[in-house]
Amino acid sequence: MIDCGIIGATGYAGAELLRLLSSHPEVGGLSLSSVSFEGDAMERVYPNFLASLKRPGVSGRLVNQDAVVEASDIVFSCLPHGLAEKAAAECLAAGKVFIDISADFRFGDDEETFKAWYGKSWTNKAVHAASVYGLPELNRALIAKAKVIGNPGCYPTSAALGLLPALKLGLAQTDRIIIDAASGVTGAGREPSKTTHYPECADGYTPYKIGEHRHTPEIIRTLSGIAGTEVNAIFTPHLAPMNRGIVSTIYFGLAKPATLAELHEAYLHFYSGEPFVRVLPEGMVSSNRYVKFSNYCDISLHMAHDGKTAIIVSSIDNMVKGAAGQAVQNMNIALGFNETSGLTMIPPAF
Amino acid sequence: MIDCGIIGATGYAGAELLRLLSSHPEVGGLSLSSVSFEGDAMERVYPNFLASLKRPGVSGRLVNQDAVVEASDIVFSCLPHGLAEKAAAECLAAGKVFIDISADFRFGDDEETFKAWYGKSWTNKAVHAASVYGLPELNRALIAKAKVIGNPGCYPTSAALGLLPALKLGLAQTDRIIIDAASGVTGAGREPSKTTHYPECADGYTPYKIGEHRHTPEIIRTLSGIAGTEVNAIFTPHLAPMNRGIVSTIYFGLAKPATLAELHEAYLHFYSGEPFVRVLPEGMVSSNRYVKFSNYCDISLHMAHDGKTAIIVSSIDNMVKGAAGQAVQNMNIALGFNETSGLTMIPPAF
Amino acid sequence: MIDCGIIGATGYAGAELLRLLSSHPEVGGLSLSSVSFEGDAMERVYPNFLASLKRPGVSGRLVNQDAVVEASDIVFSCLPHGLAEKAAAECLAAGKVFIDISADFRFGDDEETFKAWYGKSWTNKAVHAASVYGLPELNRALIAKAKVIGNPGCYPTSAALGLLPALKLGLAQTDRIIIDAASGVTGAGREPSKTTHYPECADGYTPYKIGEHRHTPEIIRTLSGIAGTEVNAIFTPHLAPMNRGIVSTIYFGLAKPATLAELHEAYLHFYSGEPFVRVLPEGMVSSNRYVKFSNYCDISLHMAHDGKTAIIVSSIDNMVKGAAGQAVQNMNIALGFNETSGLTMIPPAF
Amino acid sequence: MIDCGIIGATGYAGAELLRLLSSHPEVGGLSLSSVSFEGDAMERVYPNFLASLKRPGVSGRLVNQDAVVEASDIVFSCLPHGLAEKAAAECLAAGKVFIDISADFRFGDDEETFKAWYGKSWTNKAVHAASVYGLPELNRALIAKAKVIGNPGCYPTSAALGLLPALKLGLAQTDRIIIDAASGVTGAGREPSKTTHYPECADGYTPYKIGEHRHTPEIIRTLSGIAGTEVNAIFTPHLAPMNRGIVSTIYFGLAKPATLAELHEAYLHFYSGEPFVRVLPEGMVSSNRYVKFSNYCDISLHMAHDGKTAIIVSSIDNMVKGAAGQAVQNMNIALGFNETSGLTMIPPAF
User: Fold this and answer.
1) How many Cα atoms occupy the beta-carbon half-sphere of C301 within 13 Å?
2) CB pair distance less than 8 Å for C23 and D346
């Protein structure tokens, strides 16, 4: 049994992590920090937790960051971008595993890109140099040895898993890959704003940050790394009136002629050992509906009528495989647990 | 480890039961029947189950009812009203536990009421006479010895738990208790209809079957049994544009003067040993939001400005405490398992 | 043709008023004020108005309050509670009609009640003394002569219209009338907050301010005025996951025995001349779905199974009959226009 | 004043047409037919129309198709695909204008394509030869002289208006134009089905009929006609959890280098005389939210980070500009009315 800590526990990713870790068979103590709610009980901030956090080592009390780092064998950070470096360095020094949900460790040692898109510089470059991009289907071996793990963004997870076999196997043209994606509103986090005000997003479907969303460089970096060449990926996010889920509809030109059956077979084979990627049977279509509350990524494959353009639909729950669930998966790998521990929940039918 | 069977597995209650039983620590084999989909795989009917039903004793294949009864130590029936008698009798004869999700065994030996509201007669009255109404907070001791259990309706569960302490303790006037309740659309089941067609219920809030909903006699029977006198409960259901949840706002006149604090204390004390009833702290308001996907019933207490009318809000997930979860709770009691086995899921924050 | 002004035009009520007045056949000029957006164009705040505010006398430019009062023959105020007195006094002095959407003029000369519930005192009591409560079905003759009109609240409109015939005709017991009401989220206005954050209210149905909502004294005052005796009305609002609409389910004991048909006939007769109240045929149930975007109030009548408790369902669009539409109706009456001018829109089917 | 008829009035397009025509200043009589509901009153099928269809020449009674054709100067047909030919021929013979909402007259004289995608042959080829594709922004002059008008599909309207200037002006590469579109559920019509059952589509975003949707040939035909060369358009529809609206996110390679400002200027200029196309100011993003209930098509222009791929967002209300509103616009043109008559409604802010 290990003791886990969550820094910034009162954001949506923190609350979801707490829910998952609470039923993880290898987790003992759980400590939580919050700047805004320090001293309060988590169940007052999120009433769903009422009566559910009662067990040895779990008080549900929100303390400060230092107390969490001190008390934990592994630390999950759910702070806003740019604030994870200090705790990461402390964990690294103490030999603890640190998993960051923000973008701070998604760019390896490429400070320039981070700075260009997130507007912040790095102080402790060594921590970044030691970090691993936590997409298990791509970097499992590295994650197993990592101490600092940058948990991927939700859109990049969906896009990368949808394209990983095609790019690895050289099936896709790398110019003008279109990633048209829809996200539920929890992706915007817990802070109210005009765009997430119920009357302003219910019954509406709206693209946003076209050509300038911060997940763009992460997607391009990941896809280019997979392909071994610079990929021109064009990514457009949309806000959809739903709580959870990301559905990416991905278009690419075939690098060489292939039938849908061949494409399907290639994906099935590529992902045959992956516990959380489901390549759907031909004829079924991927949707966020069937992965909600689970760590699955569902992928369906289709061919455009022109016979030369593939269409891949890749769906995840943005809060699970796109955030907290993938973080737990990374923990499982890094600590040598069964990779599916604490992640065996079946998505509900409705 | 026991083997469980679900008859009528492809309805919503069946799909939810399958999800819950799949992660129940005491459950081994799982067999499923369906009239409409016999021979198909459950994961083709509900793609959320893809790759999730792989384990010894679980094939996910839909067979016929007899095969399910034969293979199981305990049988859950999710058939439409009026069809459970045969399997119940077979289980009773074979010493197996039978838990019925329909209304067939909610009226004990009172065939007249059942006939008046459901339009069907009984053939095997002995099975009905042997049955127990499966509301654990009311009938736990009886359930522990029962072989045929009638799982309560969703609205009646919410209403009965909201009123149980008040009626047992003589705090409420029994004339004109108003139960104004809203339900999510899953309560209508899986069969498409005009009233559940998305464009006809999205963005709308609509009462239905006012004064004539079939849960009325069940509510009155249960409340009257609790009070020891005939209760005049007026129940109005509404369809709300959401998937899961029932919220009952209940009004009754105080039988004797009491403060809100006294009422609160009485409820807290009454439910202090119940694992699934959460009496909320004063100042918090019960909502379906905080109980979704869990077996909790959340109750909040309020006083009208007139100081003589109590307002109780009682919320459940209609598919869990209102159906499949309560059925699992009944199984746990009837088979002597820990009552919370397989039901420890924490409701998600969003 | 008259010139209209809207003070506080960038709130939801203001935006809805602008939409209605823009197609009103008797309206010429339209001027708009906003504190937060002074100097901006309305179509930048609400892009739905793009290209739609182009006509003589309508610039869509947001100016200050004084300029609006100066330019207008009639002024609608959509300011927060407590801020309407100054403009009302100016209009009264200048012989202009002033219609206030806030609660400031809903209590006649009863400053004490206003102060108790809204926490503010009055400076200019004469303006209040001159004001009329703008519920046309109750006060049409007074409104026709009024210069200062307090537009009713949304919940009170729905409740009062549902009970007006019963109380006027002495059909209802006046103790413990239950008004259980659900509102769409636009009722909370345009300011984002945690309770109106999409992930916090989607898929949820939640009571709020139980026993303490500010519409309570307005409801009691109006109903008591109708009944000619103090009415004990218990009002519980709920937030429902939808944009528009209020549905009030109202319960009262019959003052004397009556059949549903008699009740129905009484309501039909009472409202036979009202252009905006539709008493539904027996067997139909009132819902916000059928009144959206219109000025209708739909009323359906039902009887509880006990035969002595009536159930009335009264539905309106909270932004139209519950705010902007009723304000236009009041304008029509006060200025001698056809009462339905600018309000003939048919609610959409979906 | 003219008399209008609606054949198949009880489908969603028919109900929307009735709503629009009821407030059209040039429309006198209105007659309605329905096969399923012949003899009933429209307001019993759609309670929103209660008390709203009372005027000379409008009974709201559903009669048969022949009676509608007989009574009308202009006939709108809202029948399922393949059934409009008879009434069209009758109107043509009688010199009446016929506007068809189905796909029957969207393919001119190209029976082969219609047959390939809709599986039906034509009997009366002359009617088809006489028909005009009713996209006013493309074919206004032809529509003005037409007697048989094929009203465009909803997706094709959105796609064509988003691409019309780019293709006409030679700004877009014509190979692999991606049209990724989301539609509200009213697009599926009034017939309940599993995919439109509330619990199956709420909170979900799901692509469907990928590579095989019937609007594909209509889109390709229209775009190719505009471009004067065969266009390879790849169209993927998605079902979004909302009632109204289509949002198409369109990607194409620039045929020659251009800045976003140049593209924007070209679109602004191209559409400067169009009453129903709003090219949004730079920086704003098109959404269905701002066009709902109106006949507007909102277009916003964007550039991908690669500087060589344009992204166009084109939004309409699928039931208005995508169906009933465009049909009224076509009527206005064909009968010489002001093109915006009956279509001046401003979209609501929420």
Assistant:
1) 24
2) yes
